TrEMBL record:
Keywords linked to the UniProt accession: ATP-binding, Cell membrane, Membrane, Nucleotide-binding, Translocase, Transport
Domain (ABC transporter): residue spans on this chain: 6-236
Protein role: Part of an ABC transporter complex. Responsible for energy coupling to the transport system.
Recorded topology in the membrane: Peripheral membrane protein
GO annotation terms (biological process): cobalt ion transport
UniProt-listed InterPro entries: AAA+_ATPase, ABC_transporter-like_ATP-bd, ABC_transporter-like_CS, ABC_transpr_CbiO/EcfA_su, Co_trans_ATP-bd, ECF_ABC_transporter_ATP-bd, P-loop_NTPase
Record GO terms (molecular function): ATP binding; ATP hydrolysis activity; ATPase-coupled transmembrane transporter activity
Family: Belongs to the ABC transporter superfamily.
Protein name, entry field: ABC transporter ATP-binding protein
Lineage per the UniProt record: Bacteria, Pseudomonadati, Thermodesulfobacteriota, Desulfuromonadia, Geobacterales
Gene Ontology cellular-component terms listed: ATP-binding cassette (ABC) transporter complex
Keyword Cell membrane: yes
Record localization: Cell membrane
PROSITE patterns: ABC_TRANSPORTER_1, ABC_TRANSPORTER_2
């Protein structure tokens, strides 16, 4: 897997109740790109992300990571490459302590205890929660849980980082800290968010979903400068691109 390209071809997903959440999505993401996936509630963002490391299987179409198709037999390999931070941190945290949660992945890789300790300490420090390492995750605040959930993925040193709404519930300081962390992560990033200012700051490319289809895919600044497209997709310009409400400039 030299280039870690993520390729999605004609991806369709129909949930068991008949909801067609994805209706023929195709794109390619190259190594080192930072790509946002945006869209209104229900547009299909989380459903799309859950296919990137095989938590959901396509109804039609396929997903490849590098040379590897994402199928049941390749999941261990794919999940070492693609680190996924879920929308709800409670889906990610299930061990008795923060340390155990962050150590879970590295231990499963069979790494020696000293290396596990090093990775856990490093991941917790990077998200600013080293002081919480002995706490039970269910006793954490929402924002703390989110940061620990991110640490569980960082401790695996993934080549591709996939984050579903990573800034939700973070206070402004923690949001800024997370943005700095993500900016420093030089590998591929795929992020869904309603925080379009974060998207402007971190992602050079944006894919817009509408009704389970790709409505646009291009440079973030061009996408957010297209008012017709934004209105059709129930999106608004990021605050940083809106004029001053008082003077209009
Ligand atoms: N488990 C499920 N069973 C049936 N339908 C589902 C399920 N999960 C999601 N859906 C539906 O699939 C569609 C896409 O949902 P998805 O969660 O991917 O949207 P989203 O763009 O991530 O939305 P949001 O911005 O609200 O998080 C929606 O119509 C939703 O109601």
């Amino acid at each position: 897997m030299s280039h870690h390209i993520v390729e999605v071809r004609d991806l369709c997903h129909c949930y068991p109740d008949g909801t067609e959440a994805l209706r023929g999505i195709s794109f390619r993401i190259h190594h080192g790109e930072s790509v946002a996936v945006v869209g209104a509630n229900g547009a299909g963002k989380s459903t799309l992300l859950l296919h990137l490391n095989g938590y959901l299987a396509p109804t039609r179409g396929d997903v490849r990571v590098g040379d590897t198709p994402v199928v049941r037999t390749t999941l261990p390999e794919v999940r070492r490459t693609v680190g996924m931070v879920f929308q709800d941190p409670d889906d990610q945290l299930f061990m008795p302590t923060v340390f155990d949660d962050v150590a879970f992945g590295p231990l499963n890789l069979g790494l020696p205890p000293a290396e596990v300790e090093r990775r856990v300490t490093d991941a917790l420090e990077r998200v600013g929660v080293a002081h919480l390492r002995d706490k039970p995750p269910y006793r954490l605040s929402g924002g703390e849980k989110r940061r620990v959930a991110i640490a569980t993925v960082l401790s695996m040193s993934p080549d591709i980082l996939v984050l579903d709404e990573p800034t939700t519930g973070l206070d402004p300081y923690a949001r800024r800290q997370l943005m700095g962390l993500l900016r420093d992560f030089s590998h591929t990033k795929i992020i869904t968010s309603h925080d379009l200012d974060m998207v402007m700051d971190l992602c050079e490319r944006t894919i817009v979903l509408r009704g389970g289809k790709v409505a646009a895919d291009g440079p973030t600044r061009e996408i957010f400068g297209n008012d017709e497209l934004l209105a059709a997709c129930r999106l608004e310009r990021p605050l940083s691109m809106q004029g001053c409400p008082v003077c209009g400039r």
